[in-house]
């Protein structure tokens, strides 16, 4: 059965005049007009429920409507779109001299919950790091392995990774690039807000870097002018887009269930480190977060992990309601 469009005939005269104005002057498509009609029908239902004339609704009435929609399961984005339609109607009404003020002006939809960052399970992250593509060019394989180890082992952003040089230099510091100090086992990067930080490079990442550096200049006869740590076939600094593409391909070949991207490895670094240490402040420093509230999202990931372990393993997790 085809869903019928909402009827504008059920609307009050001001609402119908507003729709006519939209149709004539803004030339909105029929589908868009139908959505505006639905919004106005909701608004008039709110006015009837409040026992108030449509054009005399207050901000308190509108906020009550928002609460009702939210309690009814409508998404924050859906509520925001409806409020936008109501706001436009009252703006028109004020301009026409039909309403004294716009009661929707300062009303906002509820904030949508921030989605949890996607992190790989530990076993999948390790599988990706240990994976070696059969028959792959050793030069490419060494480079890609070092990239994975630095992203997962140091929690670098992809921009920080591709900005690394093989060694410290005055030019690198002046131009906002980073470098890896193999002897000290540290990566020096320039993060968000032009803030420099140093992060430890673990044993696996150091080994992968050493293997890559031993091969890095090989295709160029041992002579390579550029200072970029990670380069492409022509010797130019690898782009962030290239890293994304290489990781996606590597994840598919390694048999991972979900597409892998650089920030997922950063999330995995933070989540797995927090699960092991519980040291939120240290994770904040390693990630280069200016505020610890940015890091606290990983505590939600950690709790999610613990809840899953509980559901799988605890004998009381599967107890049925009413059982003694």
TrEMBL record:
For this protein, the record's HAMAP family field holds: Recomb_XerC_XerD
Give the protein name, as stated in the record: Tyrosine recombinase XerC
| Record's subcellular location | Cytoplasm
Please report the stretch or stretches of sequence annotated as the Tyr recombinase domain.
115-311
Q: Where would I find the Core-binding (CB) domain in this sequence? A: 9-94
Subcellular location, principal: cytoplasm
Subunit structure comment from the entry: Forms a cyclic heterotetrameric complex composed of two molecules of XerC and two molecules of XerD.
SUPFAM superfamilies assigned: DNA breaking-rejoining enzymes (SSF56349)
Belongs to which family? Belongs to the 'phage' integrase family. XerC subfamily.
What is this protein for, i.e. what is its function?
Answer: Site-specific tyrosine recombinase, which acts by catalyzing the cutting and rejoining of the recombining DNA molecules. The XerC-XerD complex is essential to convert dimers of the bacterial chromosome into monomers to permit their segregation at cell division. It also contributes to the segregational stability of plasmids.
Q: Which domain of life is it from?
A: Bacteria
Q: Which gene encodes it?
A: xerC
Alphabetic keyword roster: Cell cycle, Cell division, Chromosome partition, Cytoplasm, DNA integration, DNA recombination, DNA-binding
Residues of the active site? 157, 192, 263, 266, 289, 298 (o-(3'-phospho-dna)-tyrosine intermediate)
What organism is the protein native to?
A: Comamonas faecalis
